[in-house]
Design a protein that fits this description.
By secondary structure, the chain is mainly β. It folds into three domains: about 120 residues, Immunoglobulin-like; about 180 residues, Immunoglobulin-like (Sandwich); about 120 residues, Cupredoxins -  blue copper proteins (Immunoglobulin-like, Sandwich). About 5% of the residues lie in helices and about 35% in strands. β18 and β19 form a beta hairpin. The chain binds copper (II) ion. GO terms for molecular function: copper ion binding; ferroxidase activity. Keywords: Copper, Metal-binding, Oxidoreductase.
């Protein structure tokens, strides 16, 4: 089967709207300057690692299920091989870069020491072509995490893998565990991620502080009750590296309870997830336990993770991750009995049953951060628009930003006001927020809806220079990033 080719115009929704030329003359380019990071605290002495791994980063060919693509992979497979440890373990991961360009690895959601956070320019020098770097860090908290580069838009190639931290004290109570990586895919079959970014940059967009007047929307794309949720139409959407016409199959016995860890590794796509014929019980988000709640569908934004328990019926069922506001979906099959496989385009009725937003969950008692009045309140605005393409924070772009400074031991409150028509999954490194509006729900990635303000507290107990950005990777790369420093 030949790969489906998509033209640039089809891939980039921004190509479908206003011609940029008439707008460009009025715009000037903001010239980024380097943000000077504070000196990272010294790497702590961590002792002998309990888990050691080697991660070869390279150019490889991958079979997405009849569609093959040349792309960049961890260890030659998609998704990359899972790394698993126990809470409190020290991990040592040697990264060998065989790419023609620099790379880095960020351990998304892990409350690790700053020097291992994997952000070139803030916490380390990039790993050059032919170079290597060993990340040694303790993973203090159990949960579902993942790792990916923090270099350009490399996450929009095949560079991502799960990082699962088990809780030795957890009773379990399930028969099996599945890890699902959701992704949007263009590399090697459509416009390359770097070319997409170049097209966005060529629009020379600037952002202004204040409300967006961008009403362009995603013309020709579906609509979402959440508002705008992405800029790019992808040729494919994947679950665990497969397109829906050649899905992977997960097998279990009827009546078994399965823990499903769902990780959104996509660059530009928010997914709406449901398992046909089943109710899901949500137990964790971003690693932390929540008060269990049943739902038939849920939203997972880029960088978010959610764990659900499912009691399986007898038969063959589609687990679908529909690309929200776009056309297309990822699919994986759940098989506990006989029956034919559903079509690639199957749309379980559960998808249209009021999907749960993960930020609306309630934390379990054990997950709560002790309540405390903030020592410092920071107003943060999210700014920008799709046309001409520009995204930023506090009225400016990364490089021209003013880092948020605090002191060790402070309770910091961030009031994130989204002044755009787009939902932004905001991510903080090295910490997990407590959301006072949701009883102290713990999250490191929170979806801030259009024109919504989200209050997020954190305890400054992990000194360093910490990236704080939108996890739409194109938004982050165009400038929607700043840092927290202490
Ligand atoms: Cu964003």
């Amino acid at each position: 089967m030949l790969p489906t080719m998509f033209s640039r115009r089809q891939v980039l929704s921004t190509g479908l709207g206003l011609g940029g030329a008439t707008l460009l003359s009025a715009c000037t380019t903001t010239r980024p300057r380097a943000t000077t990071p504070i000196t990272a605290p010294p790497t702590p002495s961590l002792g002998t690692p309990a888990v050691q791994a080697t991660l070869r980063v390279g150019v490889d060919r991958v079979d997405l299920g009849g569609v093959t693509a040349t792309t960049w992979l961890y260890g030659g497979v998609l998704p990359g091989k899972e790394i698993r440890a126990k809470a409190g373990d020290v991990l040592a991961v040697r990264v060998e870069n065989t790419l023609p360009v620099e790379t880095s690895v960020h351990w998304h959601g892990i409350r690790l020491h700053n020097a291992a956070d994997g952000v070139p320019g803030l916490t380390q020098d990039p790993i050059g072509p032919g170079g290597s770097f060993t990340y040694t860090f303790r993973a203090p908290d159990p949960g579902s995490y993942f790792f990916h580069p923090h270099s350009g838009v490399q996450i929009d190639r095949g560079l991502y893998a799960p990082l699962i931290i088990d809780d030795p004290a957890e009773p379990g109570g399930y028969d099996a565990e599945w890890v699902l990586l959701l992704d949007d895919w263009t590399d090697g079959v459509g416009t390359s991620p770097d070319d997409i970014l170049a097209e966005f940059k060529a629009q020379n967009g600037t952002i202004s502080k204040g409300m967006s007047h961008d009403m362009s929307g995603m013309r020709g794309m579906g609509s979402s009750p959440l508002g705008d949720v992405g800029d790019i139409r992808y040729p494919h959407y994947l679950i665990n590296g497969r397109i829906p016409t050649a899905p992977r199959t997960l097998t279990a016995k009827p009546g078994h309870t399965v823990r499903v860890r769902i990780i959104n590794a996509a660059a530009d796509t928010l997914f709406r997830v449901a398992l046909g014929g089943h109710v899901m019980t949500v137990t964790h988000t971003d690693g932390y336990p929540v008060q269990p709640v049943e739902t038939r569908a849920l939203y997972v934004a880029q960088g978010e993770r959610v764990d659900v328990l499912v009691s399986l019926a007898d038969g063959v069922f589609p687990l679908v991750a529909a690309a929200e506001g776009k056309t297309g979906q990822g699919l994986i099959l759940v098989r506990t009995g006989s029956g034919g496989a559903p079509a690639a385009t199957v749309r379980p009725a559960e998808l249209d049953t009021d999907p749960l937003l993960l930020a609306a969950l309630t934390p379990s008692e054990t997950a709560r951060l002790q309540e405390q009045q903030p020592d410092q309140v920071e107003q943060v605005t999210l700014n920008g628009q799709m046309q001409p393409y520009a995204w930023g924070m506090n009225g400016t772009v990364f490089g021209s930003d003013t880092p948020i400074r605090t002191t060790n031991g402070s309770r910091v409150r961030l009031q994130m006001a989204n002044e755009t028509m787009m939902a932004h999954p905001m991510h903080i490194h090295g910490h997990t927020w407590s959301l006072p509006g949701n009883g102290g729900l713990r999250k490191d990635t929170v979806l801030v809806l259009p024109m919504q303000t989200v209050t997020a507290d954190l305890q400054a107990d992990n000194p360093g220079t910490w990236a704080y950005h939108c996890h739409n990777i194109y938004h982050a790369e165009i400038g929607m990033m700043t840092s927290l420093q202490y």
